[in-house]
């Protein structure tokens, strides 16, 4: 299969990129159901955009940089905030319906770490509304082909000479059909990675099961740079025991956190912003309350019973029904919540055109790093998907005007597929892949989650290496796909741990017990490549 643009991913960034280059031949390859297996559809809180004359780009920029610990890529932040309003209005054009105030202006609610109420929303199911509109609009394009249950397992990259310069160039990717086991290439003039993050390297996560870090891993193996992979956001409020997200909109509408002693404990951590502090601060606060014995069943309470029941029904409808399923009526009793692995601020290093260090390869959405720095503000992620999805699509479209010569890579691709098929048919005895995945997840949760230190990180690295050295038993397509996922999870985990070891400070989502303060010498980014991890100091 040969196409103009290949988009790997199934969420909001992938959909927006596809719309932007829909006049070309486009193939979207989604590991799960398109629109249903990404994080966008699960995002409940809202979309940040400067729409009110009393708000400003300067305020949004300042909030985003401050929330990110000032290690964000400043140019990418500028691109995000200046294009967010335009892309928000595009969503309405695509058919999305957002809440409005009584005077018909877009309704905007407060969100953590923000100096203005700039989070636009559709009740508490904003991401679902966005995906519905994007997918409906995509139906207008006859040249877009969608492949589901299709896992990208290798990028097709080769060294070429262009303009008397040697560089790496992407020619598409090799895929595994998760239903019938076929392994095949899709060649493309432009390739966009919109594969999301890697929350599934942790046992408790808000992420869908597909998010194991495939995009990070396949790009890194071919020479793409990854930036600030130690920065993993733990959302403060997940449903106890499941990790299912309890949207920040609950706190935005006035939800109160308290411990088993009925103490509103956020006054001890951020008395000015309280529950609307940034996610890293609230997550550490909840974690600390639980660790010091003031939790209840490994959680704390989040309470909205003081709100008007009609407001809960109207603005927190999803949360109301979500907790009703477990027998909790949030109009009458508090929710039990605990932190859950949620979002990777780190990712593939991109420039303002969403270009990576590999020619012809673009990245957008959560798989791209540098935008959110050390901590993402709630509401910035949905804007991120649309702003950078559109930019990636436009530049991929322009690049697809060039011709592609697959003869340069055909033989190597055929050999790669043959090797993968041999591995598929290799059913040698070994460890159960699911047990190894569980072991990896437990290791990451125990040593590389909210609180970290050198001893724990070193122990985690040793355990991950032990897992990597074990052989895996393969019995069928599912086992084979899980083996490939495990390899990606191991690689991503190693990069996260090694980056965390090198960042000897606490900043944003990265908290080191042995280095509890911000180190001004660490104002910069850790960039991982095949040559190792280097520190790039910000000016």
TrEMBL record:
<dbReference type="GO" id="GO:0044281">
    <property type="term" value="P:small molecule metabolic process"/>
</dbReference>
<dbReference type="InterPro" id="IPR027477">
    <property type="entry name" value="Succ_DH/fumarate_Rdtase_cat_sf"/>
</dbReference>
<dbReference type="InterPro" id="IPR030664">
    <property type="entry name" value="SdhA/FrdA/AprA"/>
</dbReference>
<dbReference type="Pfam" id="PF02910">
    <property type="entry name" value="Succ_DH_flav_C"/>
</dbReference>
<feature type="domain" description="FAD-dependent oxidoreductase 2 FAD-binding">
    <location>
        <begin position="4"/>
        <end position="382"/>
    </location>
</feature>
<dbReference type="InterPro" id="IPR037099">
    <property type="entry name" value="Fum_R/Succ_DH_flav-like_C_sf"/>
</dbReference>
<protein>
    <submittedName>
        <fullName>Thiol-driven fumarate reductase, flavoprotein subunit</fullName>
        <ecNumber>1.3.99.-</ecNumber>
    </submittedName>
</protein>
<feature type="active site" description="Proton acceptor">
    <location>
        <position position="279"/>
    </location>
</feature>
<dbReference type="Pfam" id="PF00890">
    <property type="entry name" value="FAD_binding_2"/>
</dbReference>
<keyword id="KW-0285">Flavoprotein</keyword>
<keyword id="KW-0560">Oxidoreductase</keyword>
<feature type="domain" description="Fumarate reductase/succinate dehydrogenase flavoprotein-like C-terminal">
    <location>
        <begin position="438"/>
        <end position="520"/>
    </location>
</feature>
<dbReference type="InterPro" id="IPR003953">
    <property type="entry name" value="FAD-dep_OxRdtase_2_FAD-bd"/>
</dbReference>
<dbReference type="GO" id="GO:0016491">
    <property type="term" value="F:oxidoreductase activity"/>
</dbReference>
<dbReference type="InterPro" id="IPR015939">
    <property type="entry name" value="Fum_Rdtase/Succ_DH_flav-like_C"/>
</dbReference>
<dbReference type="InterPro" id="IPR036188">
    <property type="entry name" value="FAD/NAD-bd_sf"/>
</dbReference>
